[in-house]
Known about the structure:
210 residues; four-stranded antiparallel sheet; single chain; globular; NADH Oxidase; alpha+beta
Amino acid sequence: MSNFLNNQNWRYATKKFDATKKISAEDLNTLKEAIRMSSSSYGLQPYKVFIIENPELRAKIQPAAWGQSQIVEASHLFIFANDTNIGDTEIDEFLKTISVTRETPIESLAGYGDFMKSKISTLEPAVKNVWTSKQTYLALGNLLNAAAELKIDVTPMEGFIPAQVNEILGFDKLNLNTSLIATVGYRHEEDATQHYKKVRKSKEDLFITL
């Protein structure tokens, strides 16, 4: 646990990446698997994760992300896109995956499927989209923690215009919405932010035991 906490103290929201340093294929696969194994409500994972390597595409996205340099300097750009149209069809597909993975008769999952549909499919679209967007933050947490263990920097970003990113990537046609952006790579030695002391609430201010 001490290594985990040390890694958390080491990581920070990198402001300047070293564009010459790239994440290895092995480490990238580890980060992908960490995201894939993330927890999510019901296990549905109602999102897609786009990993943008193409420099021309990233240059198009940069203005929609307030012109932040990390978008084009980082080794990789991760875009978490939540599902804007999740419903019975997606739940049925999930049940099929459970059936195959666990070698369980699909009929035995009917009750669970009906329960999920009663809680999810009946939600108002705006409420449903907020819920699926929240799921991407769980996946981001796994990315942050796995990257810190590998001494790879990640900068989570909410500073972007979703509608513009959606248009650039054609998300509207895919029933997706840009929920989160994360730039991933290695800090530049000139990034002074890495030397700042981490500022967090004290335990006394943060935790309340009842």
